[in-house]
Design goal:
single chain; 62 helices; 63% helix; mainly alpha; three-stranded antiparallel sheet; two-stranded antiparallel ribbon; 1474 residues
């Protein structure tokens, strides 16, 4: 059997490695044991019996107990072996003998127990000690067999507490793993015996005993997760005798598991007797019996003969290290305590634990601890799981209906734990618990007390707080045609319980509302956690007939399969219920409807109709009974097929008959009854033919049971049938023989005690759990589909909410409609919170929009009025209007996620309040700390911060007095010539109420908190604002229309800034609206000013947060270029400064290449504008100075922009030089990135591909920088051109610190240096000196640059496979420059410079061994090709540098060699030129 793995790594109390250290440790332990010996002896000497001597023959001898203790004292200090090599039994035995002895008193026994407890807790021995298993067994055996003389009650209680203490220490010891199953059972039974005995003792002992029992259960079941499941499964499969049979009975694993407590005449208490019933203290229904039968089981169990091999196997199991077997026995023992309560007779001297609710509470507490610690591991052990599925849950169902709220609360806690750990194994049990206990009690049916209702509702709310509870109930039960709609019933229960009708909310209402909101929150959490999912596609019509009871799922673990499966099953279930409704009105039309929906075949067959009757809830049982009892041939076939849907195997006749007759109403006609019972009898005989000889016997006996049931339970029958009458009436019915008397007697008593009900309540669910229903439930649980475990994804939430939305919304709407005072109205507001939560998760847009429209009407703000003062004064005096206004904006703030068209009504209210001057200025503010708000001007006026109540400026309405007080003054004066009167107290009170109402509305939060709105709702709000603003028109508009347009634009900008995380949702509409304003405005005005600066403000505020949208945001700034010339001239300088601030504030936040491309384009454009160029260059300098904001993403773009400033002639040349400096300094960034890349590779260990890619990217950026300098080197201005050439040289020289690929150098020479040399020479030869001054000097610098770069990087260049080609290119360009003519003549400077540079280059190449004649044959070697070029530049260089080769050099090559060399030179030169 399963056992915990021994942890070999646990070390015992080891001796020190040194001999002296080990001796010290051994001596310390010896002293400790010796002190305990002394303590026991000291107490024993206080008793005259132990102080004297006993005579034995001629010698005077001490008692054996004393002798053993003294002998241990003499030996303990003489042991030489290491302590873990000493058998613990040697020093434990004297103490254990004292504990076992019935001659010792309580005080002596207590001291001995304390000594053992000390040895255990201080871990004097552990798993590495020899014979540790024998020592632990002996301790358990001695302590559980403890005997002592009872001298007084106090000492007895002390000993009992110490017994508990030692046993608990055994379980908590590291060596407890060596205890066997029998030891554990003995420990538990002993502790429970003490719990029982403590009932007549002191309060302290009672509490200690119960606490110890709890700790023992926790210690034992905490080992369950550690058990080796594979070993347990293997041993189970090998055929060990199961302690749980098919009916849930648990066999006794050895008599050792029984305990007792016997009081002997001499006053000695014995705790080790074999038969616990001898004591007389316990009744015949003792709770300590390990083997107890099930209460709900109506079958008689027969004791089977057990082979000797099986008995030996049982004994072997019990002596193995403890594991599942003892846990099974203990758990069954705890469950049996619940069974005992129903049968135990309570008398004056009965067990106090069995009185009232004490025993079940105690047992339930222990069971709860076992479930908590066993957890999911219980499900991996079939025996434990079987106990929970059957016996435990059956008892929980029974005790769940207890009148004690304490018991009900504990039962609910256990079920909650079972749901958490084992719900996949308890599908139908959970359904039954909710149907028969929670829903039954919470609905106050069957006389449940308020306390029971409250506990049941609290339990339901606890379940609702489990994230996936409702989803799993729906998927597993509501979508199963054989189960009830638990999710729907629970949802309706919560809605009805939270329904306050014209009364204040009670605790029950609040509790139910909490549960409802918890369900909604769990759905909302799943929607929030998952990516937005589209609404599920409705399940399509069934196109062809498929037996609905045979629909299967490919995989219950893969949502791709089971989601569609359960939705299909729910669709079928709904159709069946609709068919049932039609059937109840007209059976024929009901079947025709099901045929039309392809749930029944076109040609009805008996099996399909039988399955419809069997698995469809809500059918009229009278009609079903009449149909099944009909004499029509088809109906008879349906009846027999209906009977075949039942499983009567191993079931008593009366149980089977109860189960069969519960599914329909037995007809009253005798012929129909006969037909029904014939079908039943035939089916029963097929499956249970052990007692009955044939089906006729089953029929006769079934009919007899029906008659007996009528006789016993019909009040009109006065003379009842006796048992003898029943037995006599059933003589010779079993194929001419009599049935066993015991069999008939059992049937008789079963019918007498429990009526066969032939008419149950209509509808689904169980009003109560009967034994037959429980048996059927256990049978169904074996065949039911697997439990579907839901996760955090909202697969079924839409369907679920579609079911409960009606009752929930109806409850809250009715309360709101009947609100007559503020208290009830506030209760309605709480209800609206729940509605909004539900709508947020389940897309009730239309319902919420209708609610908003209705509430807006109650505000009276949309009602037209004849005068200005009427709406304001009426609003202040109308309580309902003010409350409705607060409710509207509360819903908009809290539950606006699913407001759609209702936003227009809300905006109408807001605009009305704006026109009345009742809005604070911050309504249009997107953030309190926005630094740009103060700089935005409307109509030339600066927006104020938070206004005082006496003066609240209204944005864009300078024509009116602003603020509530200002508006109120207007109402009093109305701009008339009449003298102003002071406001009355009534008017002041109305004004105060108005102020408070507006403050409570938090209208600004609708926009400042709009970031929490769902996407579709936010989009609708933005569209409503654009709709309210109206289409922009060219030309002038009325001041009021412009004021509305400005106000709506402010709100639109506010929600845009507040929704920076979802700017993509709004951006298109906002951009188009602003673009329309910009393009349609031809004159400066407040609207276009708000649009332009609002656009800049959006970009500046959102760039730090929306990197993905940076490209779109920055590209939108191109709208500025489309402004009308007059408008652009008015705002040119401010716009430029705004762009500069934007760059300075967000340079570090722009990450994407596209964003930097836009920024660089904007800055490049400013380089050509005199007014904007300085600000643009300042922004560019901010980015590039010291590489502060240069990144690999923006490097190339910033280079291009900087080059634009370098080439720009707007402004002084100094700025171009500064731009070149910025470009030159940027190479430091490349060096830094190269080093960082190398460092990261060393640290992280990047692959070669990553390394190559990073180096390549840096090399390409460096090459791009060189290209930039090359282009500026062609600049017309001499100082800029020469400075660019110098900067290019700095750039290339800095490349030594960059890890560049050799091919980059080849590209540098081919694409940068050679092309620049060619372009410079072309400019010098093709343009006049007036256009390009001093080009000769530039060419002079270029040749020096070429020589220096080549020599500086010669080592890198030599590694190139095309080095010869590159070298020939250098020689070719030097030769080209040597032969060039400027203004028709050669350049003396170049003629002097180039030979010297070439000589220096050749000398260095000679020194490094590069230029060496390696072969005298062939004309394509580097040597030959070099001198062929050099001769064209300076023929004497070879003689000067290589005098040894002078003679060879004078030799004429052969004609073929010369021709070959010439062709090679020509091809190489042509390649370089290309």
């Amino acid at each position: 059997m399963g056992r915990p793995k021994r942890k070999t790594e646990i070390k015992a109390i080891e001796e020190e490695p040194q001999e002296c250290g080990g001796t010290h440790r051994r001596g310390a332990l010896a002293c400790m044991v010796n002190s305990e010996v002394g303590a026991v002896l000291a107490v024993m000497r206080r008793n005259a019996r132990w102080a004297g001597r006993y005579m034995a023959g001629d010698d005077q001898l001490e008692h054996s107990l004393v002798q053993a203790l003294k002998s241990l004292r003499r030996q303990i200090f003489s042991w030489q072996q290491p302590w873990h090599m000493i058998d613990p039994s040697v020093y434990l035995k004297p103490f254990l003998d004292v504990i076992r002895s019935d001659e010792t008193g309580g005080q002596i026994t207590g001291v001995a127990l304390s000594a053992v407890y000390k040895i255990l807790t201080l871990e004097v021995f552990d798993l590495n000690t020899i014979h540790v298993d024998d020592a632990m067994h002996s301790i358990v055996d001695a302590v559980t067999s403890c005997r002592f003389e009872v001298t007084d009650a106090a000492s007895e209680e002390v000993v009992l507490m110490k017994i508990l203490q030692v046993l608990l220490a055994c379980m908590k010891s590291k060596a407890s793993v060596v205890l066997n199953n029998q030891d554990i059972c003995t420990i538990v039974n002993t502790c429970f015996r003490v719990v029982h005995q403590a009932g007549s003792k002191g309060e302290l002992l009672q509490r200690v005993a119960r606490h110890t029992m709890h700790e023992l259960v926790r210690a034992i079941f905490s080992h369950l997760p550690e058990l080796d499941h594979a070993e347990a499964t293997t041993k189970t499969n090998e055929g060990e005798r199961s302690s749980v049979d098919s009916k849930g009975h648990v066999d006794e694993l050895g008599k050792e598991c029984r305990v007792d407590g016997r009081q002997f005449d001499n006053g000695t208490v014995d705790y080790d007797s074999a038969d616990m019933l001898v004591s007389g203290v316990l009744t015949s229904h003792s709770p300590f019996m390990i083997n107890s039968s099930m209460e709900f089981s109506d079958e008689k169990t027969t004791s089977n003969r057990v082979s000797s091999k099986e008995l030996a196997n049982d004994v072997q199991i019990m002596i193995e290290p403890y594991g599942v077997p003892c846990m099974v026995e203990i758990f069954h023992f705890l469950c049996s305590l619940l069974n005992i309560v129903e049968t135990m007779s309570i008398g004056a001297r009965s067990n106090p634990l069995a009185f009232d609710e004490d025993v079940p509470l105690f047992a339930l507490g222990l069971i709860n601890s076992a479930v908590e610690l066993g957890g999911e591991s219980i499900g991996r052990h079939p025996k434990l799981l079987a106990l929970i599925q059957d016996e435990l849950f059956r008892n929980l169902m029974q005790f769940g209906l207890s009148s004690s709220p304490l018991i009900l609360s504990m039962v609910c806690s256990i079920v909650l734990n079972l749901y958490h750990h084992l719900r996949t194994k308890l599908k139908l049990q959970l359904e039954a618990f909710f149907s028969c206990v929670i829903i039954r009690l919470a609905q106050s049916k069957y006389g449940a007390s308020y306390q029971q209702q409250e506990v049941a509702m609290e339990a339901l709310v606890d379940f609702c707080r489990q994230p996936t509870f409702m989803s799993e109930m729906y998927a597993n039960l509501d979508c199963d045609i054989t189960c009830g709609n638990i999710f729907e019933d629970l949802g309706n229960l919560l809605s009805k319980s939270a329904f306050p009708v014209n009364c204040p909310l009670s605790a029950m209402h609040i509790l139910a509302l909490d549960g409802l909101i918890a369900v909604i929150h769990s759905m909302a959490d799943r929607v929030t956690a998952a990516s937005p999912l589209p609404e599920p596609v409705p399940v399509g019509e069934i196109e062809e007939y498929v037996p609905f009871w045979e629909i299967n799922c490919e995989s219950f673990e893969n949502p791709d399969h089971w989601v569609e499966f359960v939705r299909r099953k729910k669709y079928v279930k709904r159709r069946l219920m609709i068919g049932a409704d039609h059937f109840n009105r007209d059976p024929k039309k009901g079947l025709e409807f099901l045929q039309g929906t392809h749930l029944l075949p076109e040609k009805l067959d008996p099996q399909s109709v039988a399955c419809f009757f069997r698995y469809t809830a809500g059918l009229d049982k009278n009609l079903v009974g009449d149909f099944l009892g009909n004499h029509d041939e088809f109906c008879v076939k349906v009846l027999h097929e209906f009977a075949k849907t039942f499983d009567f195997q191993e079931m008593n006749l009366d149980t089977a008959l109860r189960l069969f007759l519960e599914t329909f109403r037995l007809p009253g006609e005798s012929q129909k009854i006969q037909r029904v019972l014939e079908a039943f009898s035939e089916r029963y005989y097929e499956q249970s033919s052990k007692v009955l000889a044939d089906k006729d016997a089953a029929f006769l006996l079934s009919y007899s049971l029906i008659m007996l049931n009528t006789d016993q339970h019909n009040v009109q029958v006065k003379k009842k049938m006796t048992e003898e009458d029943f037995i006599r009436n059933n003589r010779h019915i079993n194929a001419g023989k009599d049935l066993p008397r015991e069999y008939l007697s059992e049937l008789y008593h079963s019918i007498v005690k429990n009526e066969i009900r032939t008419s149950y309540e209509q509808g689904i669910g169980f009003p109560e759990m009967t034994p037959s229903r429980w048996i059927d439930l256990m049978r169904k649980s074996e065949k039911t589909p697997p439990y579907i475990v839901c996760d955090s994804r909202p697969f079924l939430d839409h369907d679920m909410f579609a079911i409960i939305s009606g009752p929930t919304i109806a409850a809250i709407s009715v309360v709101f409609d009947h609100a007559e005072d503020e208290d009830v109205f506030h209760a309605c507001v709480d209800g609206f919170l729940a509605v909004a939560k539900m709508s947020a998760c389940h897309h009730l847009e239309d319902v919420l929009d209708d609610l908003v429209v209705s509430l807006c009407k109650f505000t009276t703000l949309l009602n037209p009025s004849a005068s200005v003062e009427e709406p304001v004064l009426a609003f202040g005096d109308d309580t309902k209007a003010r409350m409705a206004t607060v409710t509207v904006f509360t819903i908009a703030n809290e539950y606006g996620d699913y407001i759609r068209t209702g936003w227009r009504n809300i905006l109408d209210c807001i605009l009305r309040l704006h026109k009345l001057g009742l809005l604070p200025a911050r309504v249009a503010s997107d953030a309190a700390d926005d630094p740009d708000v103060a700089n935005d001007s409307i109509h030339g006026k600066t927006l104020s911060g938070t206004p005082s109540i006496s003066h609240i400026p209204v944005v864009g309405t300078p024509r009116r007095s602003s603020g509530l007080m200002g508006r109120f003054s207007q109402l009093l004066s109305l701009d008339t010539d009449e003298p102003r009167s002071q406001p009355t107290e009534q008017q002041l009170a109305a004004h105060q109420r108005t102020v408070q109402t507006i403050q409570k509305c938090h209208i600004d939060s609708i926009f400042t908190e709009s970031k929490f709105l769902q996407a579709e709702s936010l989009l609708q709000l933005a569209r409503a604002l654009i709709w309210a603003a109206g289409r922009p028109q060219k030309g002038s508009s009325s001041p009021e229309d412009e004021d509305t347009a400005v106000f709506c634009l402010e709100l639109l900008i506010a929600i845009t800034l507040n929704n920076r995380d979802r700017i993509m949702l709004l951006w298109q509409g906002v951009y188009e609206h602003i673009a329309g304003i910009v393009q349609s405005t031809v004159m400066p005005c407040a609207l276009v000013e708000k649009a332009v600066f609002g656009l800049l403000r959006i970009c500046q505020r959102l760039l730090p947060y929306k990197e993905s949208l940076a490209d779109e945001l920055l590209r939108s700034l191109q709208l500025i270029l489309k402004l009308d010339a007059r408008v652009a001239d008015s705002y040119c300088e401010l716009i430029t400064q705004g762009v500069m601030r934007l760059v300075k504030a967000n340079a570090g936040h722009i990450k994407s290449s596209m964003g930097w491309r836009t920024i660089s384009s904007l800055l490049s454009i400013t380089a050509r504008h005199p007014e904007a160029s300085e600000s643009g260059f300042e922004a560019l300098s901010f980015i590039m100075s010291d590489g502060a904001h240069l990144t690999q993403a923006n490097y190339v773009f910033c280079l291009d922009a900087t080059r634009a400033f370098a080439e720009s002639r707007v402004g002084l040349a100094d700025r171009s030089l500064r731009a070149l400096d910025l470009m030159a300094e940027s190479v430091k960034c490349l060096v830094r990135w190269s080093k960082m890349s190398s460092g990261d590779r060393k640290t992280v260990g990047d692959s070669r591909e990553d390394t190559s890619k990073s180096s390549q990217e840096i090399g390409e950026m460096w090459l791009r920088l060189a290209h930039g300098f090359r282009k500026v080197c062609l600049e017309q201005r001499e100082e800029v051109r020469n400075y660019a050439l110098l900067s290019l040289q700095r750039c290339l020289l800095a490349a030594e610190a960059i890890s560049l690929a050799p091919t980059i150098w080849l590209q540098c020479f081919d694409q940068v240096i050679f092309i620049m040399l060619d372009d410079l020479l072309d400019i010098a030869q093709g343009h006049s000196p007036k256009e390009y001054r001093n080009m000769e000097g530039t060419l002079h610098h270029a040749m020096k640059f070429l020589s220096k770069i080549f020599l500086q990087f010669l080592d890198q260049l030599l590694t190139l496979p095309n080095f010869r080609k590159l070298w020939l290119g250098v020689l070719s360009h030097m030769e080209k420059y040597m032969k060039s003519k400027l203004r028709g003549k050669g350049s003396e400077k170049l003629h002097e410079l180039i030979p010297e540079l070439l000589k220096n280059m050749l000398q260095i190449m000679k020194t490094r061994g590069v230029l060496v004649q390696r072969s005298t044959l062939g004309g394509d070697s580097l040597w030959e090709l070099t001198w062929l070029h050099v001769k064209g530049i300076s023929p004497s260089l070879q003689t000067e540098l290589f005098p040894d080769h002078e003679q060879e050099g004078e030799m004429e090559p052969r004609s073929d060699e010369y021709s070959s060399a010439a062709e090679t030179i020509s091809s190489e030169a042509a390649t370089v030129a290309k």
